[in-house]
Amino acid sequence: MSKQIIFSEKAPAAIGPYSQAVLAGNTLYVSGQIALDLAPLGDIEAETKKIMENLGHILAEAGMDYTHVVKASIFLKSMDDFGTVNTVYGSFFIENPPARETVQVGKLPKDVNVEISVIAVK
C-alpha cells in the first residue's frame, strides 16, 4: 500500500514531526487541528470554526470534502464548551454526520481550547 503526504498551504503547518494528513489508499487520516492561525485565542466558537475551515482546506487538498468524513475526534480543554463546539461542528455536517467521540483532556498544544482530527474515505 502506498501513502501520500497531504499538505495545504491554507491550513497551519505541523508544529512537530507529523504531517497535516496522510492518504493511504482511499483513506485520509487528518492530524489534530488547532486554531494556530487565530489570535487571540479564547473564543471557543471562533476556534472551532477556524479548525473546521482548516480541516476543509486539508480535505480539499486530497480531493475530498466534509461528506467524505467517516470519523471525528474532538478534544476539549473544558466539557463546559461542548454545546458551543457541537453547534459549530454540526453546521459543517448537515446530513449523515460522521461517527465521533468528544473527550475532555488536561491540556492541549499551545494552550488552545479545542483540537479536532478526522478520518475521511473517498
TrEMBL record:
<dbReference type="GO" id="GO:0016787">
    <property type="term" value="F:hydrolase activity"/>
</dbReference>
<protein>
    <submittedName>
        <fullName>Rid family detoxifying hydrolase</fullName>
    </submittedName>
</protein>
<keyword id="KW-0378">Hydrolase</keyword>
<dbReference type="InterPro" id="IPR035959">
    <property type="entry name" value="RutC-like_sf"/>
</dbReference>
<comment type="similarity">
    <text>Belongs to the RutC family.</text>
</comment>
<dbReference type="InterPro" id="IPR006056">
    <property type="entry name" value="RidA"/>
</dbReference>
<dbReference type="Pfam" id="PF01042">
    <property type="entry name" value="Ribonuc_L-PSP"/>
</dbReference>
<dbReference type="InterPro" id="IPR006175">
    <property type="entry name" value="YjgF/YER057c/UK114"/>
</dbReference>
